Amino acid sequence: MVVSMPNAFVERMNIQLGEKETAQLLNEWTKPAAMALRIISSKVTVEHLFTHLGIELNQVPWCPDGFYMDAENRFGKLPEHAAGLFYIQEPSAMAPVEALDVHPGMKVLDLCAAPGGKTTQIASKMFGKGILVCNDPHSDRVKALAKNVERCALGSVVVLNDQPKRIANIFSGYFDRILVDAPCSGEGMFRKDEAIQRHWTLDQPAKDAIVQKEVLRAALTMLAPGGRLVYSTCTFSVEENEAVLLDALRSDQQVRIVPVFEDNHGFAPGRPDWLDEVLSTDEVEQLKLAKRIWPHLVRGEGHFFAVFEKLGERPTERAIPQISTLIKETSNAWITWCEQQLNAEVAKRWIHLGSRMSQVNDFLFLRPEEQLPALKGVRIFREGLLLGELAGVKGPKRFMPSVGIALQLRPIDVQRSIMFANDDERVIRYLRGESIVVHDDEVTVTEGSNEKGMVLVCVCGFALGWARSQGDGMLKNDYPAGWRWNG
Fold it and tell me: What's the predicted TM-score (pTM) here?
C-alpha cells in the first residue's frame, strides 16, 4: 500500500484539485489496486471461458471484454493464460482502445505499443482482417511486445522497432486508426509502482511533454482523412495532457477533438483551466472533451485520453494483394511440413498462404493480406506472424514451426494432438519445458497418419505449443525457452 507521496506532487494536486479531493485521492491510494483481465474475443467468448473456468466476474463498465479479478486468483498462472485466451490488464488502460473504435478491415497503428496490452486489445477487435502495425522504439521492450502478440494468436501483425518520425516518413496519411499511448511521468501508476514515486520530480512532466508533442505531431501526419487518433497517458500533469493536445490542435488545422462514450462511466472532463495559456472558446470546449480517469472516482488507476478526428473523407482504395517472395527450396519445405503435420483441408489452406510469406535469413513470416508500403529505412522486428524457421545444413531444409503458428491452430486442424484437462499436472510440466509421459490412447492421430511427428499440445480445446512423438510413450518438449514457466 502507498503510504506517502512526493511532497511536490501533493502540493500541486492541492492547488489543482483542491485539498478535499486530493485527500480523497491519497486515501484511495492506501487501498489495494483494482486488477482485471480482458478476454481475447477473437479466440474465445466470455461465456465459454467463464463456464470452462467455473467463475463469474464483474465487468469493467467501459470495456465489454474486461472483467475485474481478485489478486489471489493468480489468473496469470493458469494454462488458459499461456494459451492466449485472456490478457491481464489494468482496467483504466482498457478505455483508450474502446474509444478508438476499431473494426475489422481497417489499417491501424499502435505507435508506442510495448508491452502490448493495448495492441492485443486492438487486434482482438480486428479478427485477422486488415492491417495492424505496432511499434516500440526500445529494443528490449519490443521483444515483450512481439511475444504478447504471438501468445494471443493475433495473426499477421507487423512489429516495428523505430522512432515515430522515421515511421511517419513511410505512412503519410495511411492509417484509419492510430493509438498514441505516450511514454509519460506515470503519476497515475503511483499506487502500482513505488519506483515511479521515488524517481518522480516536479520538472519531469515538462521534459516528457517535449517528446510527447513530437510523437503526437508525427502520428497525426500518418492519419488518413476521416480517421481517428487516440492520445493517452497514465499521468495527471496538465503539461503532458491538455498542453500536448493544445499543441496538436494549433499545429494541425485538419484535426479536432471529438466526444467519446455516451456514458461517461465516472470519467472526469479535461481541465483547460489548469493551463497557463490564453485559449479561444473553441479550444476550451475541445479540451473539455478529453477524459481524465481518477482512482478515487472509478475502479482503476489514473489515466487520460482524448480522441482526434481528421477532417475530410478517405478516398476509396483498392487492396493490393501480397506477392510471394519465397525461393523454391523454402516453398518446398513449407509444403512438406503442411502435408505431414496438418489435416488435408487445413494443409491446402495454409499452403495457399505461401503467397503472403516472406523470408528473413532462415525465418519465415506471414505478412498481412494486403500489401504495406515499402518499409525501407525502418527497423522491422517482425514482418508478420513468425511461422518458424528452416533447419538443416546438409540436404533439403526442414521447416520447424513456431509456438505462434501452434496457437493459430485447433486440435482438429492437425494430424496429431493431445488434449489435457487444465488440472492435469502434465500441463504445468509441459509449460516448464519438461518432456511428458503419455498413454497410447491419449495422442489423437488422424486416420492414415503416422503416430510419429509433431504433436499439438492442447488444454481444454486450445493449443499451447508443440511436442514431438517418437511413438515410445514420451513427448519431447518443443515449448520455447523464452516462454517457459519458472518454479
Answer: 0.95
Domain regions of the chain by residue span:
7-310, 318-369+376-408, 410-487
E strands within 5-116? 35-39, 66-69, 86-88, 107-110
440 contacts: CB under 8 Å, gap ≥ 6: 473
Let me know: does 418 contact 458? Beta carbons within 8 Å.
Answer: yes
Inter-residue contact 121 to 38 (CB < 8 Å): yes
HEC sequence for 260-321: CCCCCCCCEECCHHHCCCCCCHHHHHHHHCCEEECCCCCCCCCEEEEEEEECCCCCCCCCCE
Q: Which fold has domain 410-487?
A: 2.30.130
7-310 in CATH: which number? 3.40.50.150
- Cα(92)–Cα(121) distance, integer angstroms: 13
- Rg of the Cα atoms in the chain: 24
How high is the pLDDT of residue 37? 96
Q: Please name the amino acid found at residue 4.
A: S
Q: Is 460 a catalytic residue?
A: no
Distance of CA 131 to CAs 47, 104, 156, Å? 28, 9, 8
- Of residues 112, 184, 234, 338, which has the active-site annotation? 234
What pLDDT is stored for residue 155 in this prediction?
Answer: 75
3-state SS class at 447 = coil
HSE-CB for 199 with a 13 A CA cutoff: 8
Query: What is the Cα–Cα distance from 177 to 96, expressed in whole angstroms?
Result: 12
The whole-number pLDDT of residue 156 equals 77
Grid coordinates representing 203 are 520538472
Report the C-alpha gap between 42 and 269 in whole angstroms.
32
Along the chain (487 residues), what's the average pLDDT of each consecutive run of 10 residues? 78 97 96 94 91 90 95 84 94 98 96 96 93 95 94 86 96 97 96 91 96 98 97 98 98 96 93 96 98 97 98 79 77 93 94 86 90 91 93 84 94 95 93 92 87 92 94 92 88
Neighbours of 116 (CB within 10 A): 29
Adjacent-strand bridge partners of 304: 233, 292
Query: What does 380-430 look like in DSSP terms, one character per residue?
Result: EEESSEEEEEEE-SSSS-EEEE-HHHHTT--GGGBSEEEEE-TT-HHHHHH
Q: Which residue has the cell 483441408?
A: 345
Cβ neighbours around 248 below 10 Å, total? 21
Cell triple for residue 231?
Answer: 492520445
